[in-house]
Protein: Myo-inositol 2-dehydrogenase
Amino acid sequence: MEKVKIGVIGLGRLGMVHADHLVNLVSEADVKAVCALDQSQLDYAKKNFGVNTYTDYKEMIDTEDIDAVVIVTPTGFHPEMTTYALNAGKHVFCEKPVGLHLDEGVREMEAAIQAHPELTFQLGFMRRYDASYRHAKELVDNGKIGDIIYIRAYGIDPISGMESFTKFATDNDSGGIFVDMCIHDIDLIRWYTGKEPVQTWSLGNNIAAPQLEAIGEYETGVATLKFANGMVATLIGGRHAAHGNQVEMEIMGSNGWIRIAQEPEKDFVTLFTEAGVVRPSMQSFAERFEQAFINELKDFIHRVQTKQPGSVTMEDGIRALLIAEACKKSAETGELVKIG
Ligand code: NAD
Structure:
């Protein structure tokens, strides 16, 4: 099979990771060009990946002989870039979330995807490609824990990432804690249960990072989701974990429970010193989900080669955004918000 020729748009915290994986670890991908606004990122990519560089994504798409684009720019750009690339005949892998608001280009993006069934579109909810979350999915689907009663999810970035997050959220609108961060767990809850929540009561605070108030962000966001059958989920998203990247989930069923990755241990090393017995922990999402990020790109490339639609769809992205926006509204108004 022919390799898939790729252009990567965005080379920041995650874009450089994706570009590196595509160049070095995804053998069926051939990265031809990259696009970013930051010259030092472009210089790094040119030197290390041997690719052409652009600051204008339309010029890259129009000029380069590429089959697909991987979009890793700030969220507000996802709708226009996806729409442009599809209309130019390119397959698209787009990072989560699909956009900042449902009424800002997201419907046009959906229409472009529907207008091009011959092109593969895949969304970057990479936790679905993590081995532990996949194992849990198999257990749920095989009825090992019975009917789901309650789900508890934590998604808390390390405090060591606060500076780079603050830059990200200052330069561009992140969408806020629910749209930017909790949306991963919202997607997983939909994936595990096959159900949509009908109501949320959400709250946020900035106790751990009062400086985020100035850029309209909550450092911590907590959401309770109610489902039509009475099932409940609670999510907490944050950016304050002192020890590392804390991502965990518990799924309680009528017949048993599943708990996923409750401690972010870096590896099998335990350090015995005067400080005590210490298990070093993972310090970033890129470290925790390294294999998932690689797996999702490998699968996207395979789907392009075999002319299949993406595994994580625009519908998944829109549903998750709808829920995250309801959580945001509830936290901002202090009210119970109906979803959908
Ligand atoms: P970032 O701010 O670190 O990097 C953004 C990159 O996009 C930079 O290279 C910048 O130069 C480039 N860019 C900005 N505007 C551009 C434009 N108009 N044209 C071309 N390039 C442009 O952002 P990030 O943290 O890497 O996040 C990017 C996206 O990835 C966001 O949507 C975010 O939600 C998502 N993300 C997902 C995960 C995950 O776990 N799946 C993790 C981090 C980020």
